[in-house]
């Protein structure tokens, strides 16, 4: 299966269990990999034969910046569901979401989740 990917998309959101996360917010980094058939686009050179990744980016941005969830697992699932609902060409969504500054004492680059969702 062919793939489209978006790496290192950064958004400011208010997701988390702790009140500080909901009030102060933080940066969320999202990586996406979409599996779909790109053979028509690779032959035609037409945008209509692929998925517009700018629209995918806007879909993710809207979910991260305009919704709030306690868990990034829920955020990731909502993003996957939204992409699968609005972009029928996409067969599978792989998403990773990272929090660079969660309220955890210690030294680390980030904490996060990865999900894979596909059509049934």
Keywords:
single chain, 120 residues, alpha+beta, 4 strands, elongated, Dihydroneopterin_aldolase, dihydroneopterin aldolase activity, FolB_dom
Word description of this protein:
By secondary structure, the chain is α+β, with helices and mostly antiparallel strands. It has one domain: 2-Layer Sandwich (GTP Cyclohydrolase I, domain 2), CATH 3.30.1130.10. The chain is 34% helix and 32% strand. The protein contains 4 helices and 4 strands. Residues 4-117 form the Dihydroneopterin aldolase/epimerase domain. One of its GO terms (molecular function) is dihydroneopterin aldolase activity. Pathway: Cofactor biosynthesis; tetrahydrofolate biosynthesis; 2-amino-4-hydroxy-6-hydroxymethyl-7,8-dihydropteridine diphosphate from 7,8-dihydroneopterin triphosphate: step 3/4. InterPro entries: Dihydroneopterin_aldolase (IPR006156), FolB_dom (IPR006157), GTP-CH-I_C/QueF (IPR043133).
Write the layout of secondary structure elements.
Blueprint: E1 2-13, H1 19-24, E2 26-36, H2 39-44, H3 53-66, H4 72-86, E3 92-99, E4 111-118
Antiparallel strand pairs: 1-2, 2-3, 3-4
EC number: 4.1.2.25
Family: Belongs to the DHNA family.
Protein name: 7,8-dihydroneopterin aldolase
